[in-house]
Amino acid sequence: MTRAAPGEVVLRMEGVEKSFGATHALRGVSFEVRRGEVHALIGENGAGKSTLMKVLSGAIEPDGGTMTLGGRPFRPSGPDEARRAGVSMIYQELNLAGDLTVEENVFLGRERSRWGMALRREQEASTLQALELLGHADISPRRKVRELSVSAQQVVEIARALAGDARVIVLDEPTSSLTLRDTERLFDVIRKLSERGVSLIYSSHCLEEAQRISHRFTVLRQCLTAGGGDARSTPLGQV
Fold this sequence. Notes:
Rossmann fold, 10 strands
């Protein structure tokens, strides 16, 4: 991956704590991502990756710590508020309505007050524009989502985030259900988003993938921040 230098810090999480009863899920975790950066969040299952991203997306409330987005305090009360602020989460289990079209899914939850053919054409054009930006003009906005492959559905999720003016997109184990070819296409999409200044958090347990696609990485281990660094210059054996 040819990497342009990322810009200023867009998102910062400091000292984030979360417990479920007597079980500590996050122990003072700190993390940041810069504008246009692909930042890998690496850790085994149970390390705290999913919990940290759920805190970021507003799905769960932290017990302690601070978050800032664009230099301002950020503590979303739920996923909808996080999305409106520009943070979109794309889970391993995709969250699409199979019986709706691609365009309807892209605008689901953001339906506009007016209606009619003019609005439908406008939304279809916006959907196609987002798909073209991602290099996937082959996906028709009018097609039912259930007819698409898993990789194409993933692109629709990303297009929905892009159409919603996402500044930060979180990808949770994004290649777990993809073939090698589809993984390469996803990496192309990630590069295009990074070049446009979108920040991406690539949550994964796969070191090789994370090193290949990211600018920097942060390691979570036993619910703690265990280290991090430049993905280009850090040998995998040191992670």
